[in-house]
Amino acid sequence: MPGPLNGLRVFDLTRILAGPTCTQILGDLGADVIKVEQPGKGDDTRRFAPPYLKDEDGNETNESAYFSSANRNKRSITLDLTSPEGQELALKMIAKSDILVENFKVGGLEKYGLSHDQLKSDFPGLIYCSITGFGQTGPYAKRPGYDVLIQAMGGFMSITGEPDGIPQKAGVPIADLMAGMYAAVSINAALRHREKTGEGQHIDIGMLDTMVATLSIMGMNYLSTGEDPGRLGNSHPNIVPYQAFATADGNIVLAAANDEQFKRFCDFAGVPELAEDEKYRTNGLRVRNREALIEKLAALMAEKPSKHWLEGLEKVNVTCGPINTLDQVFNDPQVKSRGMKLEMPHPATGDNPVRLIASPIRMSATETANRYSPPLLGQHTEEVLAELLDLGPDEVAKLRGRGIV
């Protein structure tokens, strides 16, 4: 069953993580993603290692796990965009593409003749997506953007971490990932617009913008009150109790998201009077009296092992769960059932398939397409140039000899 973007081609000029996340989503949905990499070097993340993928004998390959996280379902070609001949080849391939995605610095592609303004008249139907740290406009536009910098500047770190600790970044590069996802959503909207009008357009995704949007309820809490919310650790700003608790033998999460759940929790825990206490009877009261209530609940939870709380609270329909390690995550029966660990053959690993995190997208009429494992550098150069430009092996060999590919 073909993916929903089957038949569409993406000319992918992205590297690191935000851009590759976007184009991997498009590739998962069936688009033919042509990843363009610098000859001899490729995407920077090929060198963000260790760890590396391992072959059937357990030996490290030259392929980094980092690169493999965001480059599934792509074909890699090498092309020297600094050379006029490389630029000419790029233009010929863009002419046969529907979408171009790039994450160069603002204005970085102008010297190669590949900026949106330079292409839009010749390719009016092209959807051109730029992903940068700060967007195409504004006083910071020309600054480089890195995930941790954007998490810091976008306020995310100021609300992450323990109240008495230092600000923390997320455990994953959330600014890169959210920018990539917003870009993929925008591209799909632009495809719909082109279907209706025949017009392409320029999509301008700034990582700082997407980080500010990701502030979500915390941002709205600030805008509604004018008060900086600060850090709450594992607590929720608007729901109590909704956080991690230490048990007698570990840690779990309790999320009593409404008054009825809180009452059922109190009944099970043997403290029904807490649910009737005038300080805790409603969620609004519990938020206002958070510290006193959490002190009582923390002492209560620490008296019994995790199994007691997890099994007992599930039976009375109170939301709770374990805090899993990654080993527990990928061996969880629900995660296994949903197929979130994907295995694919890889040219560098021999009989040892590469293990990847699968796309979470599930659709009833179409499905994600796992066609290509993360490619070797330039793995598909001959194939793509033959397919798109009708170049034979001898012609490609001459280009390679001149360092063009």
Description of the structure:
The chain is of the alpha/beta class. The protein has 2 domains: 9-214 and 333-401, Rossmann fold, CATH 3.40.50; 242-324, formyl-coa transferase, domain 3 (2-Layer Sandwich). Helix content is 37%, strand content 15%. It has 17 helices and 13 strands. The strands form 4 sheets. It has a 6-stranded parallel sheet, with helices on both faces. A 3-stranded antiparallel sheet has the order 9-10-11, with helices on one face. Helix 1 packs across helix 6 (174-197) and helix 6 crosses helix 7. The longest helix is centred in the middle third of the chain and has 24 residues, at 174-197. The mean pLDDT is 97.
Task: Summarize this structure as a short list of keywords or feature phrases.
405 residues, alpha/beta, Rossmann fold, formyl-coa transferase, domain 3, six-stranded parallel sheet, three-stranded antiparallel sheet, 13 strands, 37% helix, 15% strand
> How does CATH name the architecture of the largest domain?
3-Layer(aba) Sandwich
**Helix content percent band:** 25-40%
Total strand segments = 13
What characteristic shape results from the CA principal axes? elongated
End-to-end Cα distance, whole Å, is 34 Å
- What's the pLDDT, averaged over the residues? 97
Going by CATH, what is the homologous superfamily of the largest domain? Crotonobetainyl-coa:carnitine coa-transferase, domain 1
Q: Strand content of the residues, in percent?
A: 15-25%
Largest sheet: 6 strands, parallel
Could you name the CATH class of the largest domain? Alpha Beta
Number of domains: 2
Q: What pattern of helices and strands is seen along the backbone?
A: EHEEEHEHEHEHHEHHEEHHHHHEHHEEHH
CA-atom Rg in angstroms: 25 Å
Order of strands side by side in the largest beta sheet?
5-2-1-6-7-8
Count of helical stretches = 17
Query: Any low-confidence stretches, pLDDT <50, length ≥5?
Result: none
Q: Provide the structure class.
A: alpha/beta
